[in-house]
Amino acid sequence: MKRRKFLKKSGLTTAGLLSAPAVVASCKTETKQEIASPPVSVRKPIAICTWNFMNATAKAWEVLEKGGNALDAVEQGVMIEEADVTNETVGVGGRPDRDGNVTLDACIMDKDGNCGSVVYLQNIAHPVSVARKVMEETPHIILAGKGAEQFAYEQGFKKEDLLTESTRKQYEEWKKESKYETVINIENHDTIGMLAIDKNGDIAGACTTSGMAYKVAGRVGDSPIIGAGLYVDNEVGGATATGVGEEVIRTVGSFLIVELMRQGKSPQEACEEGVKRIMKKNEGRKDFQIGFLAINKQGETGGYCVHPGFTYREYTEEGHENRHVSSFYQNE
Ligand code: ASP
């Protein structure tokens, strides 16, 4: 008998069923209710990010502690690195492409699956905030290059020179030795990907980078690609990536990790599986770095990477000292 028909016949409505403890109490469900497992405690609020960007998680924590939402926390958190001229892999002071231009990629994603992204953006210090404007002020998800830059000015962002004295010098040196060749190695990149859960238990994420140093002009990595460099599903968790973007795009890495968590894997297990899928296609290669970072709805975290050296920083109620060094594929 169809459920609706049964309810009609028996004179019960769904609401009636739900609010009828006397009926339920006399049958077996009572025992079931008594032994129902206690609610899983959630570690929240919490902010985590790739690498050892402690000022970024500290900023995110400041937002979360005051009751701010996860979206504001991740945006303001990664903005710290975008503004830091000594960080030569993100925002102002990021290393340029092989033509000497700093081109930035960033994206952001909220609890409702809304997202925004900018790719190949020049002259703007905070690509993550432009990405958020794309999400909130346009019907689109990705804006690229000149269009993204024009949009940023319309939104009130200022034009800035992103090349610093230090990155200019390094670029001049690179030009002398490189023969204008873009080489993948494990040193010339380090994205900040950040994930946070706020007091309401909602998750958001952001990812921002200047990409691979001395890349071919026009190259876009995984970091601004929803599903590759970042993915959030508020029912399950979130994931973000750092390392050679081409490999992360190929496996739609962050989406894969969230889906693996949906199927029951812990954040740690999911990150390990993500890295292993990439390594399966790159047997024996030692020239690149891939790191994944993930958080689930309970606030459990995990990180895994191809090479030693990958860390991630967690900021929780216990403080910001809880820096995790993730385990490595090569050491297995
Ligand atoms: N994933 C970034 C990119 O490929 C770089 C990095 O994180 O190291 O552009």
TrEMBL record:
Source organism, top-level taxon: Bacteria
CDD domains, alphabetized: Glycosylasparaginase
Active site: T191
Keyword Membrane: no
InterPro entries (alphabetical): Ntn_hydrolases_N, Peptidase_T2
Signal peptide positions (record): 1-25
Binding site for substrate: R219, V220, G221, D222, T242, G243, V244, G245
GO molecular function: hydrolase activity, acting on carbon-nitrogen (but not peptide) bonds, in linear amides
Keywords per UniProt: Signal
Gene Ontology CC, one term: cytoplasm
Residues annotated as site: Cleavage: D190, T191
Keyword Signal: yes
Coiled-coil annotated spans: none
Protein name: N(4)-(Beta-N-acetylglucosaminyl)-L-asparaginase
Organism annotation: Flagellimonas hymeniacidonis
